[in-house]
Design a protein that fits this description.
Elements lengths: L8 E2 L8 E7 L3 H9 L7 E8 L2 E6 L2 E5 L1 H6 E5 H10 L6
Antiparallel strand pairs: 1-6, 2-3, 2-6, 3-4, 4-5
């Protein structure tokens, strides 16, 4: 069965309280290394806790992390509520 395609968007665009999965990091090795040290990697679930100027405070598991505007623009995510709704609409019964 074909996987549904979800449109990834920048983490910077999400409102407070949104849960999302990181699907792409549009940066170099240093950015990836920095995010790994903070517990954020491709596949991680993050929740937007606060907007702070262009940056965000996100929670990843039990950790809260403040990320600058340049970083959040490079983190491409899929909001999980949207992904869940599309899966249900397409008859995907995985739980």
């Amino acid at each position: 069965m074909q996987q549904p395609a979800f449109e990834a968007l920048s983490l910077a665009l999400l409102p407070v309280g949104t849960l999302a999965r990181v699907v792409e990091i549009r940066g170099g090795r240093e950015l990836v290394r920095k995010l790994l040290a903070l517990g954020i990697r491709i596949g991680s679930e993050v929740r937007v806790e606060h907007h702070r100027g262009r940056g965000l405070v996100v929670s990843a598991g039990a950790t809260r992390v403040a990320l600058g505007g340049g970083i959040v623009e490079k983190l491409m995510v899929v909001p999980l509520a949207a992904a869940d709704e599309r899966s249900i609409a397409q008859g995907d019964d995985r739980a």
